[in-house]
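Figure caption, in words: inputs first, then the predicted bound structure.
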Amino acid sequence: MEVSLREVAFTCGRCGTPYRDGLLVGGYGRLVVRDASGRSPACADLLADPLVDLLASVQAERSALFARVEAAPTDVVAAFLLLCDPSPTGQPWDRDALPCCPACGAPPDRSERLDGLLRVDLPELRHDGLDALPRAEQRARAAAALRPAAAPPTA
Ligand SMILES: [Zn+2]
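Bound structure (zinc ion present):
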């Protein structure tokens, strides 16, 4: 999927190498993430992905069930990323991960937004593993992934 990213100048926090990469600004339902090591950028169109419909439907049922208690807000994007297939190197997705240093792989410690836009063609996040499960199991996994937004991440 082709996306427009804002060009950003990074400086490696370990070896000091300067490098450029792109970050999504705004995005209108688009999501661009990297894996936990800052590699393998991938994207999703949340407005078109049927997994978001599943999450919304499970969440709506839960809200109806617990209508009399205040429903805790849940983090649909976090649940979406949990249910996607892992990165090519088997890592979980991390929407806060910044592009890592091309020389040593460490995260940046400085960044500066530039004016340029980068048009990049990124692979789409897939959830073939989830899609292959029976519908009831998909719903159970969606329910488990939809946890309150304030809860600490489970390891
Ligand atoms: Zn480095």
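The chain is about 25% helix and 30% strand.
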